[in-house]
């Protein structure tokens, strides 16, 4: 229910012809305090038109306006203050939430249209980084939000499993590696070989030649090259899956870069046919001067393809396979240029749907305000972060609620949820600092705080014997504290819409924090479980809070334990 529109319509009826609906809507303000009403209309812009003092206009409006659905409407100086009929609207909203439950806030913006989301996409034979964590959790939340407004998201993990680096890795493994070592500790060992390769090729440039040859073999389907590559890939994937399991995130496709190996020739042919390929120092490029971009390098001198070549094939494949209405790429800020080039080349090829491709960039995670850097020793390993967060959550639960039945499970939900929430509450373009203690606190702007508020709501309901609500129930709540909670609940559908339109999970995270805060204030001021004629209404409010907090957390990919 759009209350602002309701006020606008009432005003429009008395001001008929003097001012447009849109203008009234624009002028309406939210007073700082509920004591001044829910909305205020300033009459001074009308003074010129009506040739009257604004104070007089305000009084006249109050005399003539239809007061139904308002508790009162009063003139205060040049303002008209509107107090909505709290009892009427609370009842209306609570009834809706209780009836729709988790479906509250669902809407149809997408008509079921397909939206592939390129997300997570770590590189084989390297540890999954905090940057990949951001892509994973932001992408996952966007997928859930899209689903809520009736799009069909398809989560694609575009694994970095192809490219010249695999030539280097195979060469390094052949020189220094062993099967047992890799089996014992795949990611670390593979990384070690790779790093060693980069140290040794400074003095031994012939290594680079060998590596190039291995990659060529790989691209040509050589049996040994393929076997090693497949093995490295499988080991890496195993360790990635462990992390995805911890995060509770699943994918619809693991078609990584290698998947497009046999689909690039067609792209290159298309570019040739359209005379878009130019030779530059032996390499094949597409000139993008028209777009103020550097040329896109499609094929190297030795014929090897590149990252962007595979992305071109992937974009075309996704259009064919999913006939998408939008195609999203949740990838760090630093690849902005790459995606501009990708879209520009597709545009050059006459693919109008390139406009439906959106890069969803995000900022960096820092530590002590500084960029993470392997060389400076500022590395954060995702798996350790998650484990440490769970440990901290365990300690807090042991202190607060030592008798909790399923302590371990809850500690997992809280620890992992805290890390995800911390990431998502920041606007995605902002860089943010990672401090584990801060992330897992039960108070303040944290995931555990929201989870705790939700658990408080469900425990009140439990104490009340989990009352059953019925659509014929009538609720009456008219105090300011409950009204603050009700208006927050009422705004949930609009919040979801804004979050989707801006591809911005932080909108939901901030909303959840505000709702939790309003609920805790209500809880501090109100005795809920007192047997009087409003108890059912109060419990309906608590129930609605638990539903909407649960749903907000779900949209972020965070679990909501019933007790903690
Ligand atoms: N593997 C890349 C990286 O770690 C990210 C891939 C993003 N997706 C894409 N279609 N380019 O930097």
UniProtKB/TrEMBL annotation:
<dbReference type="GO" id="GO:0004814">
    <property type="term" value="F:arginine-tRNA ligase activity"/>
</dbReference>
<keyword id="KW-0436">Ligase</keyword>
<keyword id="KW-0963">Cytoplasm</keyword>
<keyword id="KW-0547">Nucleotide-binding</keyword>
<dbReference type="InterPro" id="IPR001278">
    <property type="entry name" value="Arg-tRNA-ligase"/>
</dbReference>
<dbReference type="Pfam" id="PF03485">
    <property type="entry name" value="Arg_tRNA_synt_N"/>
</dbReference>
<keyword id="KW-0648">Protein biosynthesis</keyword>
<dbReference type="InterPro" id="IPR005148">
    <property type="entry name" value="Arg-tRNA-synth_N"/>
</dbReference>
<dbReference type="Pfam" id="PF00750">
    <property type="entry name" value="tRNA-synt_1d"/>
</dbReference>
<dbReference type="InterPro" id="IPR035684">
    <property type="entry name" value="ArgRS_core"/>
</dbReference>
<feature type="domain" description="DALR anticodon binding">
    <location>
        <begin position="450"/>
        <end position="564"/>
    </location>
</feature>
<dbReference type="InterPro" id="IPR009080">
    <property type="entry name" value="tRNAsynth_Ia_anticodon-bd"/>
</dbReference>
<dbReference type="InterPro" id="IPR036695">
    <property type="entry name" value="Arg-tRNA-synth_N_sf"/>
</dbReference>
<dbReference type="InterPro" id="IPR014729">
    <property type="entry name" value="Rossmann-like_a/b/a_fold"/>
</dbReference>
<dbReference type="GO" id="GO:0006420">
    <property type="term" value="P:arginyl-tRNA aminoacylation"/>
</dbReference>
<comment type="similarity">
    <text>Belongs to the class-I aminoacyl-tRNA synthetase family.</text>
</comment>
<dbReference type="GO" id="GO:0005737">
    <property type="term" value="C:cytoplasm"/>
</dbReference>
<dbReference type="Pfam" id="PF05746">
    <property type="entry name" value="DALR_1"/>
</dbReference>
<keyword id="KW-0067">ATP-binding</keyword>
<keyword id="KW-0030">Aminoacyl-tRNA synthetase</keyword>
<protein>
    <recommendedName>
        <fullName>Arginine--tRNA ligase</fullName>
        <ecNumber>6.1.1.19</ecNumber>
    </recommendedName>
</protein>
<comment type="subunit">
    <text>Monomer.</text>
</comment>
<dbReference type="GO" id="GO:0005524">
    <property type="term" value="F:ATP binding"/>
</dbReference>
<dbReference type="InterPro" id="IPR008909">
    <property type="entry name" value="DALR_anticod-bd"/>
</dbReference>
<feature type="short sequence motif" description="'HIGH' region">
    <location>
        <begin position="122"/>
        <end position="132"/>
    </location>
</feature>
<feature type="domain" description="Arginyl tRNA synthetase N-terminal">
    <location>
        <begin position="5"/>
        <end position="84"/>
    </location>
</feature>
């Amino acid at each position: 229910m759009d209350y602002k529109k309701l006020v606008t319509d009432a005003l429009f009826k008395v001001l008929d012809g003097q001012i447009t609906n849109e203008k009234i809507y624009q002028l309406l303000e939210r007073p700082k305090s509920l004591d001044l009403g829910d909305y205020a209309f300033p009459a001074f812009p009308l003074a010129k038109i009506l040739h009257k003092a604004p104070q007089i206009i305000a009084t006249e409006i109050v005399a003539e306006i239809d007061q139904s659905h308002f508790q009162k409407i009063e003139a205060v100086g040049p303002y008209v203050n509107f107090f909505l009929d709290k009892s009427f609207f609370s009842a209306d909203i609570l009834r809706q939430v209780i009836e729709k439950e988790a479906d509250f806030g669902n809407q149809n913006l997408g008509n079921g249209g397909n939206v592939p989301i390129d997300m997570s996409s770590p590189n084989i034979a390297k540890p999954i980084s905090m940057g990949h964590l951001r892509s994973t959790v932001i992408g996952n939340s966007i997928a859930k939000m899209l689903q809520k407004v009736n799009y069909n998201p398809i989560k694609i993990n575009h694994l970095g499993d192809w490219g010249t680096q695999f030539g280097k890795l195979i060469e390094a493994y052949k020189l220094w590696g062993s099967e047992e070592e890799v089996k014992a500790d795949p990611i670390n060992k593979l990384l070690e070989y790779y790093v060693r390769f980069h140290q040794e090729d400074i003095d031994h440039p012939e290594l680079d030649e060998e590596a190039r040859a291995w990659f060529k073999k790989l691209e040509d389907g050589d049996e040994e090259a393929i076997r090693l590559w497949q093995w490295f890939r499988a080991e890496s994937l195993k360790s990635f899956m462990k992390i995805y399991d911890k995060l509770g995130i699943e994918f619809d496709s693991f078609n990584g870069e290698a998947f497009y190996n046999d689909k690039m020739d067609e792209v290159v042919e298309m570019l040739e046919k359209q005379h878009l390929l130019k030779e530059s120092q032996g390499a094949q490029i597409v000139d993008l001067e028209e777009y103020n971009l550097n040329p896109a390098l499609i094929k190297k001198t030795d014929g090897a393809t590149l990252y962007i070549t595979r992305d071109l094939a992937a974009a075309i494949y996704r259009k064919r396979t999913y006939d998408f209405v939008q195609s999203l790429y949740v990838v760090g800020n630093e690849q902005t240029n790459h995606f501009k080039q990708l879209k520009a080349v597709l545009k050059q090829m006459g693919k109008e749907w390139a406009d439906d491709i959106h890069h969803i960039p995000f900022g960096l995670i820092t530590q002590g305000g500084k960029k993470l850097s392997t060389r400076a020793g500022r590395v954060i390993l995702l798996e350790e972060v998650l484990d440490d967060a769970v440990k901290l959550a365990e300690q807090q639960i042991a202190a607060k609620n030592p008798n909790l039945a399923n302590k371990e499970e809850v500690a997992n939900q809280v620890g992992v949820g805290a890390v995800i929430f911390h990431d998502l509450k920041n606007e995605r373009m902002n860089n943010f600092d990672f401090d584990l203690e801060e992330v897992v606190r039960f108070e303040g702007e944290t995931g555990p705080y929201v989870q705790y508020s939700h658990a408080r709501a469900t425990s009140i309901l439990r104490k009340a014997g989990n009352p059953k609500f019925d659509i014929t129930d009538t609720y009456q709540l008219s105090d300011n504290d409950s009204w603050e909670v009700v208006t927050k609940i009422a705004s949930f559908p609009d919040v979801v819409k804004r979050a989707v339109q801006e591809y911005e999970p932080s909108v939901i995270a901030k909303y959840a924090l505000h709702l939790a805060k309003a609920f805790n204030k209500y809880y501090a001021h109100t005795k809920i479980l007192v047997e009087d004629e409003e108890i059912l209404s109060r419990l309906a409010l608590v129930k609605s809070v638990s539903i909407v907090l649960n749903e907000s957390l779900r949209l972020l990919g965070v679990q909501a334990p019933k007790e903690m």
